[in-house]
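Q: I have two molecules that I believe assemble together. Could you output structure tokens for the complex as a whole instead of separate predictions?
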Amino acid sequence: MSDVRDTLLDRTLSAMSEVLEDPWKLRDVAARTVALARGRIAFRDCERGRRVRAFGDVRVVADGRISLGDLVFFLGGMFPSELVCHRGGEIVIGEGSGFNYGVTIEAHGRIYIGKRCIFGTMVRVEDSTRDLSKPITLGDDVWVAHGAVIAPGVTIGAGSVVSAGSVVVTDVPPNRLAVGNPARAVPLDVKRAHAAREA
Amino acid sequence: MLDALLGKIWRRRLGKMATLGDGARIVGRIWVRGEGRIHIGARVVLDASVAPIELHPTYAHSEIVLGDDVVVGSGTSIEAVQSIRIGERTRIGRYCRLMDSHFHPTIGERDVHPQAVPLVVENDVDMGGRCILVAGAYVEHHVTICPSSVVTRRVRAGSTVRGVPAHVIDAGSGGPK
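A: Yes, here they are, computed for all two components at once.
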């Protein structure tokens, strides 16, 4: 994460050289700059690290504590993302985590998301139902694919992957793949797992 | 009235990036991003009245082909890295997602795109709402996919599938030939 520490001048110079190399890159550079500004506005009530960016609409309700690490970003798309932290709740998102559009994170209690996590589109992470509230913890480098739902009280180990459309109701150990509704944990190396079963 | 006008505007925008068949009808907003090719067949209905529809042929060599008489529901996202082909008279429900790449590998460097697998949906398929079709899905003709299913592999003609991941609940008779 060396680019976290470099200065504004360094970043400006590198952006300029990028644009000089390929003028079409100006669009990307402009988008990144706008995203930085949008991040500042959207997450104004949150504790933010450096260079938190919002490339699209994000609805933020920060009645509790929301903490976003360095380089966290939210992409834009067809649906806005939602980051809702109710009174007394806490949402902590580790540095370098990225969210695609339509992600909903809603906390009455505590939701902890580790570093460098990848969230696909339309993922729902809510730590409360009508009559229970349990903290959710996602380790570092977790990848949650499109349309997955994480139920209250679930802990997902570092490096695990939640496949598209899964509903995770039980804990997932580190470096496993959670598939299905309800999700079960299988080895990450799907091909090798299939080969082992057929042999 | 306003819808019809908006439809016309979006149709014109889409027309610049896609080939539109005769009588294709567009209601609401279509998001088109990417550098690839989009072909929309005759009498296709893109019903984005409730939520936008996304058509993303990501790279210059990517292609999205919607056959004649296809109906696509609101909120559906079709994202092609290589190619996604939808057959004739296929109906796609609301909030579906079709993608021919996983975009991240499960093992190793997360930012490297894995190999895309062309995604094919043949003729007369009926797809419910909130379905997800990922790389490796090949849906043969006359298949019914129940709502909220996740299809990851080949589905034989005429069968009905359901679940996450989808399994066959009715093998059917292979469908009319």
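A: One point stands out. The first strand of chain B starts at residue 18 and ends at 20.
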